[in-house]
Write a structure and sequence with these properties.
The protein is α/β, with parallel strands linked by helices. It has 10 helices and 11 strands. The protein folds into 2 domains: 119 residues, Rossmann fold; 128 residues, Rossmann fold (3-Layer(aba) Sandwich), CATH 3.40.50. Helix 3 runs parallel beside helix 4 and helix 8 runs parallel beside helix 9.
Length: 255
């Protein structure tokens, strides 16, 4: 039995993942559980661009943070050649390079854990006292990396350049979700956000998840899937090779 993989990232990243998975023969479909609203006209974001050269490090919490921040870039503004851009995953690095940041200026984990702890492990050996860091994120978010920097003496600023909201599913997306509800054993939900799990509960109320499978890209996301009631939860790193290996395992188990 072939498994249908539902990619739940925001639509831009979901579309990219669907294409990558399909190139490997996976029957993948985009079903976003988060929508991203960039603050392209926010004066605070434009002001952050004006001051970006004064920072020693700019950390982006996600590819969406990269896209939103660079969408608000003033005309003629450029990324300072010596300024490092930090991220927790390779998806954000790809977004940074696509936006014009030199790959040599990017720092991010290349192996698990792909999170704040993994990033801090790469940077904690440096002297941070008195140095300035900017964290680019959406509204709210976790502050583990900021606390680590502050604990080492860095001066940390934040800029919120987008909002995360529940998606407004199209007719075809609602049909995809309905098919997953009817035949849970034939679908795998590829989950990359614990917040998205709350949106799923709202978008598909009164759903019995006990026969559904979630492939979660972080232990925190896996916990959220279990709390929602997913009967089977498999953890994987967000690297494409690891996701493919997990899908292959699930496919063999379903046969």
């Amino acid at each position: 039995m072939a498994l249908n993989v539902l990619v739940t990232r925001p639509i831009t990243q979901a579309t990219d993942w669907v294409q990558r998975l399909r190139r490997h023969g996976v029957d993948a479909h985009a079903l976003p559980l988060l929508a991203i609203l960039p603050k392209t006209d926010d004066p605070d974001v434009r002001a952050a661009w004006s001051a970006v050269s004064s920072f020693d490090l700019v950390m982006f919490v996600s590819p969406n943070a990269v896209l939103a921040f660079f969408a608000a870039r003033p005309t003629m503004a450029t990324w300072p050649a010596e300024l490092r851009a930090a991220a927790t995953g390779q998806g954000s690095v790809r977004a940074l390079v696509d936006a014009g940041v030199p790959a040599s200026a990017c720092v991010a984990p290349t192996q698990a854990p792909f999170d704040s702890a993994g990033l801090w492990a790469l940077l904690k050996g440096e002297e941070w006292k008195g140095r300035r860091a900017l964290i680019v994120r959406g509204d709210g978010g976790r502050d583990e990396f900021a606390r680590a920097l502050q604990g080492a003496g860095a001066l940390v600023s934040f800029i919120q350049c987008y909002r995360r909201v529940a998606p407004n599913w199209s007719t075809s997306e609602r049909a995809t979700a309905a098919a997953a509800r009817i035949a849970p054993a034939e679908h795998v939900w590829l989950m990359s956000s614990a917040e998205a799990m709350a949106h799923l509960a709202t978008l598909m109320p009164a759903t019995d998840w006990s026969r559904a499978t979630a492939l979660a890209t972080h232990p925190r996301i896996a916990d959220a899937a279990r709390q929602l009631g997913f009967g089977r939860v498999v953890e994987s790193s967000p690297q494409i090779d690891d996701v493919l290996a997990s899908l292959h395992y699930l496919q063999k188990s379903a046969s």
